[in-house]
Amino acid sequence: MREGVRIGFVPTMGALHEGHRALIRAARLRCDALVVSIFVNPKQFGPQEDLVKYPRPISQDRALCRKEGVDVCFEPTVEAMYPSGFQTMVTLPMIARRWEGEVRPHHFTGVATVVTKLFGIVRPRIALFGQKDFQQSALVRQLAKDLNLGVEIVVCPTVREADGLAMSSRNIYLSPDDRIRAATLYKSLQAGAEVIRRGVTDGETVRSAMVRVIKNEPAVTIDYLAVCDPTTLDPLSSVTRQAVLLGAVRIGATRLIDNILVSAKQARRSFE
Amino acid sequence: MREGVRIGFVPTMGALHEGHRALIRAARLRCDALVVSIFVNPKQFGPQEDLVKYPRPISQDRALCRKEGVDVCFEPTVEAMYPSGFQTMVTLPMIARRWEGEVRPHHFTGVATVVTKLFGIVRPRIALFGQKDFQQSALVRQLAKDLNLGVEIVVCPTVREADGLAMSSRNIYLSPDDRIRAATLYKSLQAGAEVIRRGVTDGETVRSAMVRVIKNEPAVTIDYLAVCDPTTLDPLSSVTRQAVLLGAVRIGATRLIDNILVSAKQARRSFE
Questions:
Q1: CATH superfamily of A7-156
Q2: Confidence of residue A28 (pLDDT cuts 50, 70, 90)
Q3: Taking an 8 Å Cβ-Cβ cutoff, which residues of chain B contact chain A?
Q4: Could you give the ipTM of this predicted complex?
């Protein structure tokens, strides 16, 4: 790192979409040199998950980076990142124990370990993550603070399709019919947010409104729907300030996650 | 970190002795700016261990640092290092599972976590550790490599008292009688090394020679004595190249560790 050169960093698993492009553009505005990493990190996939079939359209990804003025496109091999004898693991037991961490037991250890490594290699001043992976962004924020990594974590709003579906590299797994049904997840989160905005504070009432929307679409099954504190990700029995509505569903063999942040009616009033 | 300014770092728990002084002087020769940290890290002590009574002669420590030309003496508080909400842990399951890690279950997670944090804060180019804590130095070396911390780890030879006892902040716990008996540990390691130098390769034969020396001193009890590979710390059934002889004993309420590195007779010949 040269003094005065502010490195911005967007870590990705490739298969870049409009959500990544938004991160790259937001980074561009905030740094002198911009690094994008493309690394499908095996350590954050479970044994039954989609590591092998995860999309890897590397030429398109490089073209997008070139077009967006990325200075360095960092594409390490698995062997370079995890050579023989590699063993160090970074864990955040409190943030990782619920929601995605419960469904995907070693996922967040894989994320925290690779992010620590990438920060060590790239030495960025700021790193940008998408809000779509809300729990991941909370984890990375806590990780950077706890380990004094000296990296400012910036979380950018989720970019959505016209019907509200959050952009994700995994959306290509959806059949045309399932693609239409996939918008149900965002509709469910919106229904919960609407209930909060109308002044309801009881967490279980909000959650029920979310559940009801998913239940109307029999092809979509709930992994979890939750009303949580945005920092600790603990469930809220009462929404008095900010809440994050978290959702994960399965449609056929595809798993989708999404979230929205919402302020309680009384919290919004206090700002007016 | 300024480009061209090479920061050297000696992390300590204070109670500085001649071993630390040797690390500081070795660092001085290899860097432009020298940082010593003094932090009695609670996370590397077990609940039954000596955290509270660990010596903290801070004025003497500062005087030694001043005399040795240390540029920054970094003395963080426990609250600054582990604020409310802190949760990240760094673990090295393979190196940490044996020897000290077996006797002190969370010790090396505490060490790996605090070293990662201190490297993040200090951003050194090189960091120096004493060979006395051999397993710790192997762990830190692997940690720095695995997490791409960009720090060169330098391990300096153990500094010893006239009778061979390795310098340690914990030696002050020894009664005068136990202080005399404490040299038995080094004598035991030397006996093992001598057997190897005479051409014996069988690990168990070497270990027996070490055990015999300790058994001659009834006030000293063995925690472990082992003949190991210096990188993996796995026990060696046959010493054909390098070995580290590791020992931990108890004398009264005090626990002492020590080690020596030794080359097999045939390995030494190949250098001649």
A1: HUPs (3.40.50.620)
A2: very high
A3: 1-3, 85-95, 112-113, 116-118, 120-121, 123, 142-143, 146-150
A4: 0.94
